[in-house]
Design brief:
The complex is a heterodimer of chains A (112) and B (116). Chain A is built from no helices and 12 strands. Chain A has 112 residues and is mostly beta strands. In chain A, strand 5 (32-38) and strand 6 form a beta hairpin. The N and C termini of chain B lie far apart (37 Å). Classes of the chains: A mainly beta (112), B mainly beta (116).
């Protein structure tokens, strides 16, 4: 069975500092991994995905994520956080079907 | 490209009535659409998978007679909440994929349903 874990309910970071939002996964076979961002009362916006290829994936708004097979992780990172990055971030995993399993979400709060 | 819309964005209805939510892919043909439900400060829960021209596949624990899904065309899926109750109040989000081998889902903006 597929599963994804986001161990942190909330991450606090000062503006201008690097940020990391953690995600680990469990899936049989090759994983398809995604990060989405959600602003209040809005749908999800796609940030980036890993299907195959380079382990470092670059996405929208300066975000990137590194696929680490040995640690079964896909942490989201950004070198310099902006206040406007404050939102709810979801990691998701897909497998043989095109269903996605979502993590519980991590609230990112960037302080000015 | 890959824009998904939902209508309405907010709806308030009385207990016992039914409400329909539309999900449209505006600039692509969606082979598959998904319906999710999201409770406050919680993750998305997949309710059902909808393929054009066929019956929706519901996840375990989701009442198919209560949450009617129709996927009449490659650009439109509808979710009807029948005989709504206050506990059906939630944020409903649809998503769509394009192509048969796409793993990337494009999400609608969501519909806030409040049942009084």
């Amino acid at each position: 069975a597929q599963s994804v874990a986001q161990p942190e309910d909330q991450v606090n970071v000062a503006e201008g500092n690097p940020l990391t939002v953690k995600c680990t996964y469990s899936v049989s076979g090759n994983p398809y991994l995604f990060w989405y961002v959600q602003y209040p009362n809005r749908g999800l916006q796609f940030l980036l995905k890993y299907i195959t290829g380079d382990n470092l994936v670059k996405g929208s708004y300066g975000f990137e994520a590194e696929f680490n097979k040995s640690q079964t992780s896909f942490h989201l990172k950004k070198p310099s956080a902006l206040v406007s990055d404050s939102a709810l971030y979801f990691c998701a995993v897909g497998g043989a079907t095109n269903k996605l399993i979502f993590g519980t979400g991590t609230l990112l709060a960037v302080q000015p | 490209g890959a824009v998904v819309s939902q209508h309405p964005s907010r709806v308030i209805c009385k207990s016992g009535t039914s409400v329909k939510i539309e999900c449209r892919s505006l600039d692509f043909q969606a082979t598959t659409m998904f319906w999710y439900r999201q409770f406050p400060k919680q993750s998305l829960m997949l309710m059902a998978t909808s393929n054009e021209g066929s019956k929706a596949t519901y996840e375990q624990g989701v009442e198919k007679d209560k949450f009617l899904i129709n996927h009449a065309s490659l650009t439109l899926s509808t979710l009807t909440v029948t005989s709504a109750h206050p506990e059906d109040s939630s944020f409903y989000i649809c998503s769509a994929t394009r192509g048969t081998k796409s793993y990337e889902q494009y999400f609608g903006p969501g519909t806030r349903l409040t049942v009084t």
